[in-house]
Amino acid sequence: MDKKPRIVFMGTPAFAVASLSALMDAKMNVIGVVTAPDKPGGRGMQLQQSAVKQFAVAHDLPILQPEKLKSPEFFEALSAWKPDLQVVVAFRMLPEKIWSFPSMGTLNVHGSLLPQYRGAAPINWALMNGESETGVTTFQLQHAIDTGDILLQDRIAITKNMTAGELHDTMMMVGANLLVKTLNGLLEGSLKSISQIEVIENGVNGTVIKHAPKIFTKDCEINWDLPVQQIHNHIRGLAPFPGAITKVDEKIVKLYSTSISNETPKEQVGSFLTDGKTYAKFACKDGYLILNDIQWEGKKRMPIVDFLRGYRKS
Description:
By secondary structure, the protein is of the alpha/beta class. The chain folds into two domains: 7-201, Formyl transferase, N-terminal domain (Rossmann fold), CATH 3.40.50.170; 217-310, Roll (Methionyl-tRNA Fmet Formyltransferase, Chain A, domain 2). The chain has ten helices and 15 strands. The strands form three sheets. Strands 5-2-1-6-7-8-9 form a seven-stranded mixed beta sheet. The chain is globular.
């Protein structure tokens, strides 16, 4: 393709900004941005712009902020831009009328090695399930969510104590680079897509398909009957947001950073143990979960030593 396609970028959080910035740096023809409407937040509940909107404003990119993606007004405004291709990174689920109308369709960047971990929270679930590897996939949108034909993938190693926040930051940059590589491949005509059905049939990326649904409060609750390693994975998979939760002294606490002692506990599973000065831990069925930091109900997150200075068992 001699002429660079007219690209509309759709995204909202900081994760998406890295991809949009990479497209701009690569001199791609980004003609406009679609992002979430401004929302009240912070002190005084002032209207807050999304991270993508802030970037778009700074780079003089036209912006659309539809309340409803199915509204005729949004489709009319989007159509007026005459996009050849749409790129979606961390945005809402699009109606078929929106993702299908550009001549080159719509491309999505997803935070997993599809077909594994389709869904809203692939980073969290990969860690919560104790995976040693994940990655990023660029694919072409189809009707069913996260099922489109795969274009490119890049793998990311997961270290044993990596948190969701750390994986997010790594994946943000890997995804941005993969997006540019994908677009260059499409422009050169060197990319051949592969259906996810074919990937599944060939057993690539694992034969058992795991999913990544939206995280709800019940998913954050710690089950102390699980092995200590699974509990540790659960906690790091929810750190720093939304945070794994349990109760101590009938108060809700959030745990963000933990380590493991394989010493066999004598106490009841789920017991909270501390010397009141230097350590706090929970007894699990096959070891102790040692707390590195904690957020007590109504308090800020703090290192465990700082927390213990003011802790008095009720």
